[in-house]
Amino acid sequence: MQDFLRASHDEALQAIERFEKMISTDKIEYFDVHQIESIYDFYFEKNLTDQAAKILDIGLSQHPNAASLIVKKAMLIAENGDIDEALEHLYKIEPIESTNTDVLMTLGWIMLQKHQTNKALNYFWKAAKVSFEDKEDTLLEIAYNLNQYELYVEAIKFLEELLKTYPQNENALFEYAYSLDKVLEYQQSIDAYKRLLDINPFSENGWYNIGIIYNKLGNHLDACQAYDFTLAVNPNHEEAYFNKGNSLVQSGHFKEAIESYTEHITISKDTALTYQYIADCWEQLNNYDLAIRFYKLAIKLSPKLPDAWYGMGTSLMESANFQGGIQAIDQAISINALNADYWFAHARGLFELDKAEDAAHSLENGLNLDPDELTGWFELLKLKIILNEDFVIIDYINTISERYPDTSAIHYLAAIAHYHYLKDKQNALQAFKKGLSIDPDGISDIEQDYPSFLQDSDVKELINQENYKNKLNE
Fold this sequence. Notes:
Layout: H1 2-25, H2 33-45, H3 49-62, H4 67-79, H5 83-93, H6 101-113, H7 117-130, H8 135-148, H9 152-165, H10 170-182, H11 186-199, H12 204-216, H13 220-233, H14 238-250, H15 254-267, H16 272-284, H17 288-301, H18 306-318, H19 322-335, H20 340-352, H21 356-369, H22 374-387, H23 393-403, H24 408-421, H25 425-438, H26 443-449, H27 451-454, H28 457-473
Helix pairs in contact: 1-2, 2-3, 3-4, 4-5, 4-6, 5-6, 6-7, 6-8, 7-8, 8-9, 8-10, 9-10, 10-11, 11-12, 12-13, 13-14, 14-15, 15-16, 16-17, 16-18, 17-18, 18-19, 19-20, 20-21, 21-22, 23-24, 24-25, 25-28
């Protein structure tokens, strides 16, 4: 077998040498079809398309009916963007090459480029039917092409057909798991990856991808374990350290997350975001000095990282440095003025510095971006009442209710305004009922800011009634 391969390789090299000599002397020599294919493949793989095209032209002049050369010509033309011309070549030989897998596969591939999915699938199924001894490779290539065009449901069908006969095919299992992930069949995707890992426990991509899916399912500790296996196979897998850190954060294990992020820093060149995430962890651990230090490192590496500026701002405020905090958050807002959290933090800092009017403006900016932030509405209402002794609450409530008719936070705000400030219990209950019907989770914010409201017997009865209705609708 080795002697055969060596002889075949030597023959290909001789053919390439003859071709190059022919070009240099400008003389035409004869090549058989197999030699033409070998020369073409050599240049095509090296991305030398001019030479590849030239040998094909010579080959087709000598062997005008060679289906394999016509297929290569069509593919080369299609890759250069002339799909219709490529089809003309293939259509000429399709009637007499109706069982030629290469012809059918190329027609299917071109139909994908033309976004004619049904025609592509028709050609692919024909190719699969006539492939015989190459069926395994043919089905896998079809699935790969379909995945490339994001036709995951269709790819799954071909992969299931392949895995019926070849259940141990690692590449097929990988593509199958990948496709299932893309159609949100996460548990089935995990099962497919596990089948792959039973065959090859050293598949780092298998372990890594299963970790990603566990994270999507919220199984963050299982994800960490998968990333640990990834790192056991490849200790220098940057993304595994980074993703493991993220999983630990989601699990509330901030110190362990810092360790994983630190490992990422030691082997990665792109570390600005990692420094930011380490800073986030220290902020969660209430170590604001270290948080500020790491936010500064992140900003030094990437000055346009708005979340790092924001985090530094909130950490400075937690350290009672409100002026510095506002300056940092100003930087975040200058980079991205469409983040509501930046404006809410900005308002907090201004309020702490007794700049209530400016704080109200920042709150309004944030609430325009995120009108579902009920606590923000409560704070804004308080500020407006403080700032303007002639402030008409009912006019304000009516205005924003018209602006945000389907936002539960506005109806909860109206309920509190009617109940707490206007002493209008009937309208308060109507507004509260509307808020409950849209999003009952808003009760938690009311409990934090206005617990006495929820102790009212009529409010309690309304909550019980709405809870009963929600259960009926589940």
